[in-house]
Design brief:
Blueprint lengths: L2 H26 L16 E2 L2 E5 L9 E8 L4 E10 L2 E4 L5 E2 L3 H12 L14 H4 L17 E6 L5 E10 L10 E5 L2
Antiparallel strand pairs: 1-2, 3-4, 3-7, 4-5, 5-6, 7-8, 8-9
């Protein structure tokens, strides 16, 4: 074998080694973790202006449902009000009229500005530990750790907000009001 042939073989072997190293690097490179890019954003942002809530007009809300599953008594408690015939009514009490406009506006304002502070987990198996199991999911009644589900809907029944509020974040200051929260969807 002459010197030219040896050089070509060594160059080809070097190129093959570089190619294999590049392919292995691409295969072993960590994938971006989904969910972390949303930290600091609103749960329900306006698509045109992500720093603004999707809704900020309390008159858009036409119903509110609060669902709480009591893990000890294994009973589901719901409270629902709806705007019907120009009046706010208690759905569970034969449509008895109520003055809910002010309370609903406060609730809508507080939940529409909820921001993601940190991603705690992406695993559904951790929901019970964080207290964010869906109280309306009958399949989860065998477990402990249900949250409080707050659903505010428009007149077509489309949810404006649908959040499950879980346990208070451990070691957080009481003034911070930090809770584990997840979207119901």
């Amino acid at each position: 074998m002459n010197a030219s042939t040896k050089t070509i073989v060594y160059v080809a072997a070097a190129l093959a080694a570089v190619g294999l190293a590049f392919l292995e690097h691409q295969r072993a490179k960590p994938r971006p973790v989904e969910g972390y890019e949303e930290v600091g954003t609103l749960f329900y942002p306006d698509p045109d202006s992500p720093e603004q809530p999707l809704f900020d007009d309390p008159s858009e809300a036409k119903s509110l449902l609060l669902a709480v599953f009591d893990d000890e008594s294994e009973e589901l408690d719901t409270f629902e009000i709806a705007h019907r015939d120009g009046v706010w009514r208690l759905v569970d009490y034969n449509g008895y009229p109520t003055d809910a406009q002010t309370q609903l506006a406060k609730t809508l304002a507080s939940v529409s500005m909820v921001r993601r502070e940190a991603l705690q987990t992406r695993r559904k198996s951790d929901h019970a530990e964080l207290g964010v199991l869906d109280p309306l999911d009958e399949d989860s009644y065998v477990e402990q750790g249900h949250g409080e589900r707050v659903t505010i809907s428009d007149e077509d029944g489309k949810p404006l907000v649908d959040l499950i509020i879980g346990k208070r974040v451990p070691d957080s200051e009481p003034s911070e009001n930090l809770y584990f929260v997840r979207r119901a969807d």
